[in-house]
Amino acid sequence: MSRIQACFEQLNTSGRKALIPYITAGDPNREVTVPVMHAMVEAGADIIELGVPFSDPMADGPVIQKACERALESGTSLRDVLAMVAEFRRRDDRTPVVLMGYLNPVEAMGYETFADACVSAGVDGVLLVDLPPEECEDIVPRFRQRGVDLIFLVAPTTTDERIRRIGEAASGYLYYVSLKGVTGAATLNVEEVASRVETIRNLAQLPIGVGFGIKDAASARAVSRVADGVVVGSALVNQIAANAQRTEAIAPAVAAVLADMRSAMDE
Amino acid sequence: MTERPDYKAFPDQRGHFGQFGGRFVSETLMAALDELETMYRRLKDDPQFQADFDYDLAHYVGRPSPLYLAERWSEQLGGARVWLKREDLNHTGAHKVNNTIGQALLAKHMGKKRVIAETGAGQHGVASATVAARLGLECHVFMGEEDIRRQRLNVYRMKLLGAEVIPVTSGSRTLKDAMNEAMRDWVTNVDDTFYIIGTVAGPHPYPMLVRDFQSVIGREAREQSLKQAGKLPDALVACVGGGSNAIGLFHPFLEDEGVAMYGVEAAGDGVDTGRHAAPLTAGRPGVLHGNRTYLMEDESGQIIETHSVSAGLDYPGVGPEHSWLKDIGRVNYVAADDQEALAAFRELTRVEGIMPALESAHALAYARKLAPTMSADQNLIVNLSGRGDKDILTVADIDGIEF
Ligand SMILES: Cc1ncc(COP(=O)(O)O)c(C=O)c1O
């Protein structure tokens, strides 16, 4: 059983929902990331989404755009991100790690090399924002064979037919984008999310994480009532940005936001 | 020998030109692209839609644009007879308007009240603002801060036309970043907004529909050549930024095997310096802005900054059909640097009394080398994609002149 599947099953038995933080790897430098990952787990994170910085993050709002710029400035490449996961695994063999990013760095490395590198680093899943299922029919099996989950987005605009197709290509979980917009955008409408999640459940057999627009404990709690997982990104990256000059303050600041969300979700 | 491909059959159903093209966007946009494709496939063969398009091109844009024999310049170059396809004479001053007329018609059919566009040189922004004004649509144009400085005349034109120009401050602050920002806007406002992409790049169906709208250039040129020169041309030359004016000229000639084709990229300071905008000449395949194509990127797949004196060529990617035409060997891709383009700009202005856009000057710079290698009974057509008025401040800057 994959780490991601095991994670959701265990949460299920204990009646809890997954808290899934996102940070951009290498933001603001390469030394910060692994300690922050451990701190997030201690604060209650169940799965970590680690952003691979890209020069042209088309689906991201200003907060994560800036995070990418800081990470690239500090020289973070896809290889470095993989090395960070390997380092994280030395102390944590349980928490699933998902790499989230854009396709081109993976294209540059080559799919075969990348899939192998994921396995040896201990990466559990990959979410490539600009890779829809139509464009990766020949790629899916390479990850499947190696036990690396490919995670796909479902949007408010996704038709039922596409949800079915995405459900077939995906494994691990589905990531429902709660609103039309970029990361860090306005607030989400919980009722709308609830009804969409219901639709997705009827069309695909995977746990559903919801992200975009989750800013604080209240929104995390509200979403956790209707979904299997809560993805939070910009709210954490804001903490990193605010402390970019005092990097020792980053882990506690990020952990504090997460701990708040965790207790609100578990109430 | 491999069989000649059926060029008209490309892209395939999913928007691929061989390994290039496709639709690499985040999930939110998939439905909008499906909707656009369905609408386009329906309207493309609708005689009324074609008639509306042709009417606008004739009466609003001023088509057909002349095919002009540059006699004095040809004589000076001493070789082929050089003809200029005069897209500079179009309303708004460049080929870009052919495409915005077409996409605005699509927007109208789809009931969208707001259009957005990205722009580099400002020509596509102006052409978008123009059609938006004419149809009473709200228009937002995304433009890199660096380009706003270089092309301030066009920025003011867009404002006069009622468009809002939104400065883009991320990344390299040029065309690619403007395109990122336009995509972000589109994701957010996808219900009421039509994204008018300015070149043959972006996700499927854009490379296909922009090509189809721009192909009027090549269809006219082919007919005009037969009539005026009595035969098909021997060579075609066009500059390549995203590649819309080039594909527009080339596409109707692809099956004419005797017609050689040259796409001219911007070599900036020189291809060897790394400071250029020539992905077909010096890049490799990757994925950006929704399609797989040749890109300028570093070893780890990050897009690198481009450089060109001409804002309209300052783009790290290129339309996927060009990547395919390069790989199958149908079109030759070459490059001209800033100095060569500026020299050609000055030369055409002085010898023919035609001031070309700096983008088009790259095509002229290559034609200047090619023509002397050809014989006097051969014909070469250069796509004069736009006029140089917008570049006067840039050239004056280079000359150290202040107004
Ligand atoms: C006059 C002119 N020519 C050429 C271009 C380059 O675009 P494309 O390669 O799509 O024709 C531009 C772009 O702004 C332009 O304004």
Structure description:
The complex is a heterodimer of chains A (267) and B (403). In chain A, helix 4 runs parallel beside helix 6 (111-121). Chain A has a single domain (3-266), classed as Aldolase class I (TIM Barrel, Alpha-Beta Barrel). In chain A, strands 5-4-3-2-1-9-8-7-6 form a 9-stranded parallel beta sheet. The radius of gyration of chain A is 17 Å and the shape is globular. Chain A is 48% helix and 14% strand. Chain A has 267 residues and is an alpha/beta fold. Chain A contains 12 helices and 9 strands. The mean pLDDT of chain A is 96. Chain B is an alpha/beta fold. Chain B has 2 domains: 16-56 and 96-210, Rossmann fold (3-Layer(aba) Sandwich), CATH 3.40.50; 64-94 and 214-398, Rossmann fold (3-Layer(aba) Sandwich), CATH 3.40.50.1100. Helix content of chain B is 43%, strand content 19%. Chain B has 16 helices and 14 strands. In chain B, the strands form 3 sheets. A 6-stranded mixed beta sheet of chain B has the order 3-4-14-9-10-13, with helices on both faces. In chain B, strand 5, helix 5 and strand 6 form a beta-alpha-beta unit. Chain B is globular, with a radius of gyration of 19 Å. Chain B starts with 15 loop residues before the first strand and ends in a 5-residue tail after the last helix. The mean pLDDT of chain B is 96. The A-B interface holds A 54-62, 65, 69, 72, 77-79, 102-109, 129-132, 134-135, 152-159, 162, 166, 177, 180-182, 185 and B 14, 22-32, 170-171, 176-177, 180, 183-184, 187-191, 285-290, 292, 295, 297, 299-304. Bound molecules: pyridoxal-5'-phosphate (PLP). Pyridoxal-5'-phosphate (PLP) binds next to helix 5, helix 11 and helix 15 of chain B. Pyridoxal-5'-phosphate is lined by residues 94, 96, 120-121, 123-124, 199, 239-246, 312-313, 357, 359-360, 385-386 of chain B.
